[in-house]
Write a structure and sequence with these properties.
This protein has helices at about 75-85, 90-95, 100-110, 110-125, 145-160, 180-200, 215-230, 245-250, 265-275, 285-290, 295-300, 320-330, 335-345, 345-350, 380-385; strands at about 25-30, 35-40, 60, 65, 130-135, 165-170, 205-210, 235-240, 255-260, 280, 305-310, 370, 390-395. The protein is of the alpha/beta class. The protein has a single domain (about 65-350), classed as Metal-dependent hydrolases (TIM Barrel, Alpha-Beta Barrel). Helix 6 (about 180-200) runs parallel beside helix 7. The chain is globular. The relative contact order is 0.17. The structure holds zinc ion. Zinc ion binds near residues 67, 237 and 311. Zinc ion binds near residues 67, 69, 237 and 311.
Amino acid sequence: MIGILEPEISCLKGEDMSKVNRIANAWLHVEDGIIVDFGPMTNCPDLNVETRDVQGQWVMPGFVDSHTHMVFAGPRHNEYVMRLKGKTYAEIAVEGGGIINSSKRLQLMSEDELYDKSMKYAYEAIQGGTCALEIKSGYGLNVESEIKMLRVIKRMKETLPILVRSTFLGAHAIPPEYKENREAYIELIINEMLPKIAEESLADFVDVFCDEGFFSVDETNKILQAAQKYGLIPKIHGNELGITGGVQVAVANKALSVDHLEHIGEEEIACLKNSDTMPVALPGSSFFLKIPYTPARRIIDSGLPIAIASDFNPGSSPCHNLWFIWSLACLYNGMLPEEGFNALTINAAKAMGIEQQYGSITRGKKSCIIITGPFEHINEMPYWFSKNQAYKVLFK
Ligand SMILES: [Zn+2]
């Protein structure tokens, strides 16, 4: 059994990220969806409860996917081929592809159809061991469609057997009709979308794509400040395309996490050190877009924590397999297998604000557990890249 932590540990930083506690030949007692106790078999209590023998297998905490865009109308395989033929993601976006393409399709789709499609992806992710999931809006880009997306996420929250958190990402891109009047779109977010979202309790978090060609630091700040008045906690897309101030604006607004960070300098690292904001790497989008990988090794070596997530979305990361994301993080972000494990469990839980209930095998936490096959060593988990290692996923 691996991933055992004391309740007071809310995340792992620096050198501690390579530590994974293990009990060989262990027992685990769960009751009503909560971890009651555990220990080595040499002191297993004689309880009158239903038992499951998983001898030879590994038991670990379920994964937390703290960054997804799981609600979308369809794949963007045409753009994939355009990129194979040499166009860049930015060039495709300028021609009306990218987020705007997803938005046009989503605006035309009914809420029910969108819900059915998204639930299919969610169940696939669950089979891979995902036990908590963050899902963003951001393909609506008008009041009606952003609300439609958030209602779909709310239904997923109510019906899925795992924990779902909802993020409002109205500031994902400037819709074409506001190209000449960005200010008006930001006013629409602040004066029309946010009050409606608050009225229906549709979101837990607020996100802004703060980057070159998307939203500036000032615009991001304005949106975050307005959203915080409604109790929405910030999570930021930052520094994917350049060093653009995304880290600083996230930290200034006490964001739970700042995600992407393919471009990060010493100033950004120093800023994160004085904060409680979790840096999050998204290796799936670096892989798929063939852009630089977040320098996780440098971030960890500077004493910081880091989480990793799938960024599951139709344009830049059509992959919710966190086992594969783990392999990518080891091969290309410079992480060790143990660091990848902690980045997908306890640190990912912190990036979602759920570290008190998820992310480790800890007495009193939710009994969301993955049972894998036998391994010689934890190194094997990301070594067999792209294989779903979850034999069984338990929620309670
Ligand atoms: Zn994203």
